[in-house]
């Protein structure tokens, strides 16, 4: 499983440009209201972690997907789950939105 830091996202997006890369935010709705990333140069989709199994039809198995959560633990669990379901291009955004604030966009609130 590829681990990428928010600071490495642009490089990851460039590497997967031909696969229409997706950032999959697996946080809860209240978390999105508290802090959210701006989808600049990528598509952003929110599916809370608990809804992932029932929402697999929304995700292309061959698409590059980088999973995001608060600190990187839930997103890692989702990424492992997706790999086990046959998704071949899954990565985890290490440090989650908390590290995103530190490395990419300090305007995103920390919580």
TrEMBL record:
SMART domains: RHOD. It comes from the Bacteria. Pfam families: Rhodanese (PF00581). Residues 17-109 form the Rhodanese domain. InterPro entries: GlpE_sulfurtransferase, Rhodanese-like_dom, Rhodanese-like_dom_sf. SUPFAM superfamilies: Rhodanese/Cell cycle control phosphatase. This is Rhodanese-like domain-containing protein. It comes from Comamonas sediminis. The lineage of its organism: Bacteria, Pseudomonadati, Pseudomonadota, Betaproteobacteria, Burkholderiales.
